[in-house]
Design a protein that fits this description.
Length: 103
């Protein structure tokens, strides 16, 4: 399965738009984002105390039951994400002996 940058070249008006894009991309790869990998909005961590407490409880539950999740609302600029995806692809394109050699 090929790796895809979900938000490449897309501009989202809201986190809801970004979440829909994540769910659509997950479905394209045979995942049901609604019941497969949960979606966590990190911006909730910076809200009122009650929201933070609920966010942490939800995160704990998701990590315990799923172990993985989609993360939105993190504030990492898309160009940086794209750069890291490119660097990761370049690294894993190297022969295994080169990747595992210690500097």
């Amino acid at each position: 399965m090929a790796t895809q940058t979900i938000t490449r070249n897309e501009v989202f008006q809201s986190d809801a738009d970004r979440i829909r894009a994540v769910q659509d991309a997950a479905r394209k790869h045979g995942l049901d984002a609604g019941e497969g990998l949960p979606i966590i909005n990190l911006s909730r961590l910076h809200g009122p105390e009650e929201d933070r407490v609920l966010f942490i409880a939800e995160l704990r539950k998701i990590l315990h039951h799923h172990g993985f999740f989609y993360l939105v609302g993190h504030g990492v600029p898309q160009p940086l994400i794209d750069e890291m995806v490119s660097a990761t692809k370049a690294f894993f394109a190297l022969p295994k002996m080169r990747r595992t050699k210690l500097p």
